[in-house]
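Subject: Predicted fold for Phenylacetic acid degradation protein PaaY, 203 residues

User T.R. writes:
Posting the sequence so we have a shared reference for the thread.
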Amino acid sequence: MTCYAFAGLRPVVSPDAFVHPDAVLIGDVIVGAGCYVAPLACLRGDFGRIVLEPGSNVQDTCVMHGFPGSDTVVEEDGHVGHGAVLHGCRIGRNALIGMNAVIMDGALIGESSIVAACAFVKSGMQVPPQSLVAGLPARVIRPLGADEVDWKRNGTSCYQTLARVSLATLEACEPLTAVEAGRKRIELFSAVTLQAMRREGES
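User M.O. replies:
I've generated the structure tokens; pasting them so everyone works from the same file.
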């Protein structure tokens, strides 16, 4: 990882968290046990504190930042999709933030809620637990079913496995110049889209 001390504060990373070498951590950043921080994520704790609680993940090109004196927090088992921006907000335990969503200052995403891709959650919005949120600006669409919450948990479990496997096996290498015969596939994870899960349930 690219890691910078700022104003005397150094980032803190649990030994069993995985932070990709191309992620950037600055200043007052705390990454808990079993977390996964993907390539090109930027956790910038120069104004306010940035906290990833145990088992959470922040995916590629995400940005976490906040105003002076604020905390930007992803609670335990939180899941932040590619390209999301979190600014001075709190993501509740086991909640999912969809790709390219923006969560603004003082917003609270309730436990086990899902914020849809590309949603814009306004400053101060309070999302009840186990809710689906979508739109520009975002609004609560409906409660989530138990099957949807289970689907989310499975996806987060894949990222927790990814953190462990990355710690054990990720290494820089030179690419091959041709595809080898019988090239194997990675078969460490089991996840499907929400739509595919629903189709399976209907069949």
